[in-house]
């Protein structure tokens, strides 16, 4: 596998991952401003969400199911928490297929660790949408980035408390449609 970074770029990529973590915690001030109908706080500014809705997005029905999770912010502990309804919990540990966009977390031409998002990614340092609108994915066979919607199959897992706001994961995943 050909690496596309040197030491300086590696430091930049590590800084980018740090910025990703910080950017997920940064919107805490928006949490007080808006709540959704299910009691979950909205962590995305409304003007950003409005602009985002003009871009292509995955219409996979599982994203709507994940949106039912209630997200809260513990400002003192600087963590996000999610409460999952039973219709999401029943998928814990199950294999499922979901479609979305790739947001790489590695700085190689091909990678095995990335975020799958409902919305078109527009920034390399910030996942688009709410915390219920992306899934951390690990796959065995490296893939290259694509701007198109892909389908991934893997074991679905949930984590109710995360400092980085990532509540969903697909483990042992593979590409179904690329």
Characterization of this structure:
There is one protein chain. A hairpin with a 5-residue loop joins strand 3 and strand 4. The chain is built from 5 helices and 8 strands, in the order ααααββαββββββ. The protein starts with 6 loop residues before the first helix and ends with a strand. A 5-stranded mixed barrel has the order 3-4-5-8-6. The N terminus is likely disordered. By secondary structure, the chain is α+β, with helices and mostly antiparallel strands. The protein is globular, with a radius of gyration of 16 Å.
Please describe the structure with a list of short key phrases separated by commas or semicolons.
single chain; 178 residues; alpha+beta; five-stranded mixed barrel; three-stranded antiparallel sheet; 5 helices; 8 strands; 22% helix
């Amino acid at each position: 596998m050909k690496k596309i970074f040197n030491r300086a770029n590696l430091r930049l990529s590590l800084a980018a991952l740090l910025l990703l973590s910080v950017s997920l915690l940064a919107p805490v001030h928006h949490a007080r401003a808006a709540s959704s109908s299910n009691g979950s706080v909205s962590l995305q500014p409304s003007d950003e969400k409005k602009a985002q809705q003009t871009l292509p997005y995955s219409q996979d029905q599982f994203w709507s199911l994940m949106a039912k999770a209630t997200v809260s912010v513990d400002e003192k502990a600087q963590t996000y928490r999610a409460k999952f309804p039973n219709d999401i919990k029943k998928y814990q540990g199950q294999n499922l297929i979901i479609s979305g966009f790739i947001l790489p977390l590695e700085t190689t031409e091909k990678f095995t660790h990335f975020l799958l998002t409902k919305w078109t990614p527009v920034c390399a340092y910030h996942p688009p949408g709410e915390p219920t609108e992306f899934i951390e994915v690990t796959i065995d066979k490296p893939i290259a980035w694509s701007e198109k919607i892909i389908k991934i199959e893997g074991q679905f897992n949930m984590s109710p408390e995360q400092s980085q706001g990532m509540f969903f994961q697909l483990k042992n995943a593979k590409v179904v449609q690329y």
